[in-house]
Design brief:
The chain is built from five helices and ten strands. It is of the alpha+beta class and about 280 residues long. It has two domains: about 80 residues, Helix Hairpins; about 150 residues, Immunoglobulin-like. Helix 2 packs antiparallel against helix 3.
Length: about 280
């Protein structure tokens, strides 16, 4: 490699490490670390990830430091001869106990986070999510509201007949609207094949399996739009099955629910009138 190539390689490597450990760099093009998310659980998952990363980083430095020191200081050219011992009870005890202690230290906080992630009790509302090829169906069980959510990106963008927008393949016709500061329980299932509902900023990735119900929950702390995708290879249009969650203030959410119900009632009334008219004409 040329000197300039080495400089770029080292610079990008340092940039990735700095971003990974929470720093910023002018060399950074994009973040390489996990997203912190917008929920308490996503923040705890991020903190757990960073803790384990620090531990692995420290282990790596220690192991490679000892290895390189041994290679440099005990090489044949310096006159060192290989040791003749075959075993050491003390060393075997140390390299058995130390990893065990490290694993226990990691297991305790990880178990606490996993238990909390699975605790769907005391939810303020419940939403049933059903995967179809290739769209999502959302049912607000407590509010008698339901709708389908499908890809909104035009085929002209997909086939390069139009310029792609910033949310290419990550936009839908009907967003999943959720209130902030309320615990929302999700029920996941599917109608045809296995799907997976995944929104990184909510720290949710759950399989939607036909005939089964999986659970998860979220409590979003701030308004915003959060995007995800189906994370299970579910067929030909797997890549065209996005998830868009819009978090709004509770008052705005209640207003949105009322508008949805009113629209549904008008559509139902129009359908009844059409059926009545058709029956009378016959």
């Amino acid at each position: 490699m040329k000197r300039s190539d080495w400089v770029k390689f080292i610079g990008r490597s340092l940039s990735a490490v700095m971003i990974m450990f929470g720093s910023q760099s002018v060399l950074a093009v994009q973040p390489f670390n996990m997203t912190k998310g917008v929920t308490d659980i996503s923040q705890r998952v991020f903190d757990l990830h960073m803790l384990i990363l620090y531990i692995c980083f420290g282990i790596g430095i220690l192991v490679f430091s000892v290895m390189f020191y041994s290679i440099l200081k005990h090489r044949k050219s310096k006159g060192h001869k290989p040791a003749t011992f075959h075993e050491s009870a003390s060393l075997e005890f140390i390299w058995t106990v130390v990893p065990f202690v490290i694993l226990i230290a990691i297991t305790i906080p990880a178990t606490k986070v996993l238990i909390e992630m699975e605790d769907t009790t005391k939810a303020d509302m419940t939403i049933k999510v059903t995967g179809y090829q290739w769209m999502w169906h959302y049912e607000y069980i407590d509010h008698d509201v339901n709708f389908y959510s499908a890809l909104k990106t035009s085929r002209d963008e997909i086939y390069n007949r139009e310029e792609k927008n910033p949310n290419y393949l990550l936009e839908v016709d009907n967003e999943l609207v959720l209130p902030t500061d309320r615990k929302v329980r999700f029920l996941f299932t599917a109608n045809d094949v296995i799907h997976a509902w995944w929104v990184p900023e909510l720290a949710i990735k759950k399989d939607a399996i036909p005939g089964f119900i999986n659970e998860s929950w979220t409590n979003i702390t701030k308004p915003g739009v959060f995007r995800g995708q189906c994370a299970e290879l579910c067929g030909r249009d797997h890549g065209f099955m996005p998830v868009v969650v819009r978090a709004v203030e509770p008052e705005e959410f209640d207003q949105w629910i009322a508008e949805r119900k009113g629209k549904a009632n008008k559509n139902f009334a129009a359908l009844e009138n059409a059926q009545h008219t058709l029956a009378n004409s016959n």
